[in-house]
Amino acid sequence: MRLDVIVAHYDLVIIGTGSGNSLLDSRFAGWRVAVVERGVFGGTCLNVGCIPTKMFVHAADLASVPAAAARLGVDETLDGVRWPAIRDRIFGRIDPIADSGRKYRMAHPDNANVDVYLGAARFVGERRLEITPNDGSPAETVTADRIVLAAGGRAVVPEIEGIHDVGFHTSDTVMRLDELPRRLVILGSGFVAAEFAHVFSAFGVEVTVVARSGALLRGEDRDISLRFTQLAQQCWDVRLDRKAVLAERAGDGVRLHLEGPDGAETVEGDLLLVAVGRTPNADLLAVEEGGIAVAPTGHVMVDEFQRTSADGVWALGDISSPWELKHVANHEARIVQHNLLNPGRLRAADHRFVPHAVFTAPQIASVGLTEQDAERGDARWVAATEAYSGVAYGWAMEDTTGFAKILADPATGQILGGHIIGPQAPTLLQPIIQAMSFGLDARSMARGQYWIHPGLPEVVENALLNLPLDPVD
Ligand SMILES: Cc1cc2nc3c(=O)[nH]c(=O)nc-3n(C[C@H](O)[C@H](O)[C@H](O)COP(=O)(O)OP(=O)(O)OC[C@H]3O[C@@H](n4cnc5c(N)ncnc54)[C@H](O)[C@@H]3O)c2cc1C
Ligand SMILES: NC(=O)c1ccc[n+]([C@@H]2O[C@H](COP(=O)([O-])OP(=O)(O)OC[C@H]3O[C@@H](n4cnc5c(N)ncnc54)[C@H](O)[C@@H]3O)[C@@H](O)[C@H]2O)c1
User: Counting ligands in written order, which one lies closest to the CA of residue 315?
Assistant: First the structure.
C-alpha cells in the first residue's frame, strides 16, 4: 500500500468525459462524484471523431456533386474548396460545445456535488487513483467506492523505421491542417482511411492509400469490400498487399518505402496520415494496479453488466469494447448508469445486433453476419442481393454500383445480416437493424407493410423478396 496523501474519497469517480460524461444526472445529486479528464471535454466522438469527420464528409459529398451530375445531363462546376472556411466552421461549432460542457460540469449549480479534475488518472491500488493535473501541479490521490472507466483509446502508430522523424498525422490532427496538401498518403485501409480518402480526394487532393491487406475495408462482407476496393481503385492510387518498411523525408514531404507483390517501391506525399487502428487506454491507466483484468487485445474485460474483474469498477466504450463505436459507448453508458443506480436490479448490455457505417463514397452500412461469418458457422443460411439499379429511384440516380445484401435463415426467415453499399446506406439499413432487434422475419418485413414507391428503400424490399427462403404452406 502506498502512503500518498488522499485528498478525497468519492462515492463515484468517472475517468473520461466522452460517453462517461453522460452518466451523471439529477439522480446522482446525493452522491459525491469526481470526473477526471486529461484532454478536451467531450472525448473522441465530439472533438476528433464522429462529429467533425461527418461534417467534413458532408462538405466532401457536396464537392463531389458536379462530377456525378454531369452523367445526368446537369453541368455544374466546382469553383473551389475553401478549406480554412470549412475547418473553421466545423470547429467553430464543436469547440464551444466542448468548452461549455467543461464549464457546466465545473461551475453549474447542477454539479455542486461534482469535482472536476483536469488531469490524467492512473491506478495506484484498488479503487485508488493518482491524478496528475494538466497544469503541472503535484499529483493527488483519491479513493472511491465506485469507479467508471470511460477513458477510450488512441490511434496506433506502427513501428516503421523513420516514422517518428518524418512527422505524420493521425485523425486527431489532420482535420486542423492550415492548408490542404497537394498529395496525401494514407497508411491503413479501415474506417478512418476510407473516410479521409473520400474527404481529401473530393477536396482535390491526390490520395494514395497503402493497405496491408488485399482489399480495403476487409472487415466488411466480402462482396461489399470487393466492390468498395474496385471503386476506390478508380479514384485513388490504391496499393494493396503492401508492407511499409521505411519512412523518410522527401523535400517538404514524406516518402514511404513499401514491399509488395512486385517487390520494393515507394510512394510520396506532402503529408502522411496514419490510420492503422486504435488501442484502448487501459495501459495508460495502469488498470492492473487496480486489480482489473485486461484481455490480450488490451481491452478492459467486462461482464454482461459492464462490471470489470475488480469490485466496484465498471467500464464502458472504447476502453473495453471491441466495437469502438459511439452508439455502443452510449448504450453501455446507459447500462452502467442504470446499474450504478440499481445495484439490486442489474441490466445486461445488448450487443446482439451492433451496426456500423462507413461514411466514405459510396457509403457503407452493415449489421449482423457477413457471408464469410455465415460460412464459418454451422447454421443454415441463404443470401440475396438487390442492386440500386434494380429499383426506380436507383434508375433516377443512374446508380450502377450500389447494392443491398441480406442473409437469413431459410426456414424461419430470421434476418441474420444486412449490408449495403451506396447512397444513404446507413439510413436504408436502419429498418433491417430494427427488424433484427425486434425479431421481425424477412417474409413479414417484406410483405407485412407498404414500401413507399418509388423510394430508395425498395432496394431493401427487393433484397428481402429475393431471398430463396424455404416454401411455406
Ligand atoms: C476519426 C474517427 C471517426 C469516428 N467516427 C465514428 C462514427 O462515425 N460513428 C461511430 O459510432 N463511431 C465513430 N468513431 C468512434 C467513436 O469516436 C468512439 O467509439 C467513441 O468516441 C468512444 O467513446 P468513449 O467514451 O469510449 O471514449 P472517448 O470519447 O475517447 O473518451 C475518453 C476520454 O477519456 C480521456 N482520458 C483518457 N485517458 C485518461 C486518463 N488517464 N485520465 C483522464 N482522462 C483520460 C480522454 O481524454 C477522452 O476525453 C470514430 C472515431 C474516430 C477516431
Ligand atoms: N464511421 C465510423 O463508425 C468510424 C469512423 C472512423 C473510425 N471509427 C472507429 O475507429 C476505429 C479505428 O479506425 P481505423 O480506421 O484506424 O482502424 P480499423 O481497425 O478500422 O482499420 C485499420 C486498418 O489498418 C490496417 N493496418 C494495421 N496495421 C497496419 C500497418 N502497419 N500498415 C498498413 N495497414 C495496417 C488494418 O489491416 C486495418 O485494415 C475503428 O475500428 C472504428 O470502430 C468508426
Answer: 1
Do residues 280 and 262 touch, judged by C-beta distance below 8 A?
no
CB distance 196 to ligand 2 below 6 Å: no
Find how far residue 106's CA is from the centre of its chain: 28
* Residues 265 and 285 placed together within one structural domain of the fold: no
> Cβ-count burial of 8 within 10 angstroms (0-12 exposed, 13-18 middle, 19+ buried)?
middle
Nearest atom, ligand 2, residue 219 CA: 39
CA dist., res. 25 & res. 37, Å (int): 18
Evaluate if residue 348 carries a pLDDT over 90. Answer: yes
Ligand nearest to the CA of 174: 1
Instruction: Check: pTM over 0.95? Answer yes or no.
Output: yes
Are 323 and 272 members of one domain?
Answer: no
Average pLDDT on 240-267 reads: 97
**Ligand 1 atom 37: the closest Cα is on which residue?**
151
Which three cell numbers, joined as nine digits, stand for 329?
459507448
ipTM score of complex: 0.98
Structure confidence at residue 4 as a pLDDT band (50, 70, 90): low
Whether residues 290 and 213 share a domain: the answer is no
Q: Are residues 335 and 244 in the same domain?
A: no
Please indicate whether residue 358, judged by its CB atom, sits closer than 6 Å to ligand 2.
yes
Q: CATH code at 388?
A: 3.30.390.30
What pLDDT does 7 receive? Answer: 87
Q: How far separated are the first and last CA of the chain, in Å rounded?
A: 71
Average pLDDT over residues 70-91: 97
Given a cut of 70, whether residue 1 has pLDDT beyond it is: no
Residue 335 and residue 198 share a domain? no
Provide the residue range defining the domain that includes 269: 163-276
Q: Is 404 annotated as a binding residue?
A: no
Ligand 1 pocket residue status of 327, Cβ below 6 Å? yes
Both 135 and 34 in one domain: the answer is yes
Q: Note if 331 is an active site residue.
A: no
Listed residues 230, 245, 276: the one ending a domain: 276
- What distance in angstroms lies between residue 184's CA and the mean position of ligand 2's atoms? 17
Pick the residue whose CA is nearest to atom 31 on ligand 2: 158
Q: Is 171 annotated as a binding residue?
A: no
Q: Do 132 and 19 belong together in one domain?
A: yes
Q: Specify whether 307 is located in the same domain as 400.
A: no
For 118-157, b where at least 16 C-beta lie within 10 A, e where not — what string? bbbbbbbebbbbbbeeeeeeebbbbbbebbbbbbbbbbee
Residue 63 assigned as binding residue: no
Whether 313 is covered by a domain: the verdict is yes
Nearest atom in ligand 2 to 156's CA: 16
425 lines ligand 2 (CB under 6 A): no
